[in-house]
Design a protein that fits this description.
heterodimer; A: 113 residues; six-stranded mixed beta sheet; B: 115 residues; mainly beta; four-stranded antiparallel beta sheet; globular
């Protein structure tokens, strides 16, 4: 079946460090891929998405590239800020009449000033 | 507001009692999801409604859990004979057109504590 695997947290970095959160997926066909973010005390919200191979999603300085050859969608940011501290969820959806979005287990990110 | 609304925001109950959690999705959204998020854990899928199709109940953890969606809008998640392990934040999300564009809009959740 379809599934998403992300690196376990927590991840702790210093401000301005480079961030990578790994995400790999298993799916038949051609899923769309997403990163959601949950800031402390807030609900989940969509951060970025990519709908086909080689697409790059980007938002708020974060980027992720849909790599079909490695079935990956790693999240990256060149210089993190304290305000990026949150839980990040990788997710996928396959287009079908009754598809549902599938989430990874989440990665908690903490940024030290 | 125009977002997904969940109630109650907090519920404390005694073991063995029944609870109902309500979700008001964004108007016009045909898909509705319930997830559970336990402390320090990821999102556990519970149930998915899409239009008039039969719901996907594959994530419900036991027959004490049930959900319905009336008139294609409001949904209620019912937990019967609550147990301490049911303590978690229950999240509702809705989306357009079955979520095919993948953008789910989440409510802020209902925090359930079973004593």
């Amino acid at each position: 079946g379809n599934s998403v695997t992300q690196m376990e947290g927590p991840v702790t970095l210093s401000e301005e460090a480079f961030l990578t959160i790994n995400c790999t997926y298993t799916a038949t066909g051609y899923p769309s891929l997403f990163w959601y973010v949950q800031y402390p005390g807030e609900g989940l919200q969509l951060l970025l998405k990519a709908t086909k191979a080689d697409d790059k999603g980007s938002n708020k300085g974060f980027e992720a590239t849909y790599r079909k050859e490695t079935t990956s969608f790693h999240l990256e940011k060149g210089s993190v800020q304290v305000s990026d501290s949150a839980v990040y969820f990788c997710a996928l959806i396959r287009y079908s009449s009754a598809s549902k979005i599938i989430f990874g287990s989440g990665t908690r990110l903490s940024i030290r000033p | 507001g125009a977002g997904v609304s969940q109630s109650p925001s907090n519920k404390v109950t005694e073991k063995g009692k029944d609870v109902e959690l309500r979700c008001d999705p964004i108007s016009g959204h045909t898909a509705l999801y319930w997830y559970r998020q336990s402390l320090g854990q990821g999102l556990e899928f519970l149930i998915y409604f899409q239009g008039n199709s039969a719901p996907d109940k594959s994530g419900l953890p036991s027959d004490r859990f049930s959900a319905e969606r009336t008139g294609g809008s409001v949904s209620t998640l019912t937990i019967q004979r609550t147990q301490q392990e049911d303590s978690a934040v229950y999240l509702c999300a809705s989306s357009r057109a079955g979520g095919h564009d993948g953008e789910l809009f989440f409510g802020e959740g209902s925090r359930l504590t079973v004593l």
